[in-house]
Amino acid sequence: MTEATDLAEDAGSKDPRVGLRAVRALRTLLEKLEAIQVTNARNQDWSWQEIAEALGVSKQAVHQKHAGGRRLRKGR
């Protein structure tokens, strides 16, 4: 099994310590995966609006979360 599969299984544990720890780890993994995919999208010239639509959030939310120093590097 993969780490993500193990974590998903642990998230359903009847033991709250195991379940909550797994939820925290999954949240961290999800944040990393989102950042990677947003970077991929921006590198392929996706607009903030396109990314926002794919994530089901507002353009402002995704831009605020992920823009960082990119505006200076990409001139956007």
Structural features, described:
With 76 residues, the protein is mainly α. The protein has one domain. The chain contains 5 helices and no strands. The chain starts with a helix and ends with a helix. 7% of the residues are buried. The model is unreliable at 72-76 (pLDDT under 50).
Explain briefly what this protein structure is.
The chain is mostly helical.
**Helix and strand sequence:** HHHHH
Rounded to the nearest angstrom, the radius of gyration is 16 Å
Largest sheet: none
Oligomer: single chain
Supply the number of structural domains: 1
Number of H- or I-type helical stretches = 5
Cα shape:
elongated
Strand count: 0
Helix content: over 70%
Distance between the termini: 41 Å
Beta content: under 5%
User: If you average the pLDDT, what whole number results?
Assistant: 90
Structural class given helices, strands, pairing? mainly alpha
Helices and strands, with pairings:
Elements: H1 3-11, H2 16-43, H3 48-55, H4 59-66, H5 70-74
